[in-house]
């Protein structure tokens, strides 16, 4: 029987790791007889392989893995968001061996610690969070099959209100396309380089602006999915404030709790009638961007 296929980026630890495990558990609990192959991807081969083994060990007692006659198969693929060739390579494998993809969860991301802000911080943050996520969408969205899902992990700190009203208008235009969005992100980089980001309406926060970009690109891909009539659900979400290496140990949610909304958006049938495409979600609910 042809397997369904899911892929999670940045899944060797933190929320991505929890998404892979919870996706496996929740998919297996549903009545579907179709098997699911989940690709755990990570930029570091060893860390990725180790995490795959760890999840397999954790799931052994649940009897849901293919080796235990269950429906779930876990596999590792190397993918670095800042290395476009590694994204293309993954796309080729999915196309050649699986004829496509059903669930894509863009989770990988970085955040500098402390209040550092300069041209280098902005470029590095955008390279992974914005351009990396965009490249994964560019190469893998075309492989998503009808009735598939695309979930981008953004953040509640990337709300429009952090921008000037002029920039808010630009980012929320219904006719904003990818080139227009790249133009806005390049303007942010240039305004920082030329030391006039504040007067141009940007906050002193590279991570937050990168996530504004992730939510904006999600809306563009949602409009594309609707116009192509492919019946693909495309949404952005915030996992909440989660205790991972990115934050602090006393953050309010566990990685499993952080995985709840992305897994809900990937699997749940309720999502379909609940809303239009391209929304921003937190705690399984649509909120304003
Ligand atoms: N934690 C929170 O409170 C929170 C809140 C809102 C949004 N988020 C978002 O949730 C997502 C997951 O964050 P987290 O808290 O789980 O952070 P984390 O524990 O630091 O995990 C981040 C993951 O992304 C991977 N990654 C970083 N750069 C990459 C690249 N160039 N290519 C491929 N993978 C890369 C990391 O791999 P390495 O191990 O190799 O570095 C790691 O697997 C991020 O997008 C983050 O912005 C988190």
UniProtKB/TrEMBL annotation:
Annotated signal sequence range: none
Superkingdom field: Eukaryota
Keyword Cytoplasm in annotation: no
Gene Ontology molecular functions: oxidoreductase activity
Keywords: NADP, Oxidoreductase
The UniProt record lists the keyword NADP: yes
InterPro entries cross-referenced by the UniProt entry: NAD(P)-bd_dom_sf, SDR_fam
Entry-linked SUPFAM superfamilies: NAD(P)-binding Rossmann-fold domains (SSF51735)
Family: Belongs to the short-chain dehydrogenases/reductases (SDR) family.
Entry protein name: 13271_t:CDS:1
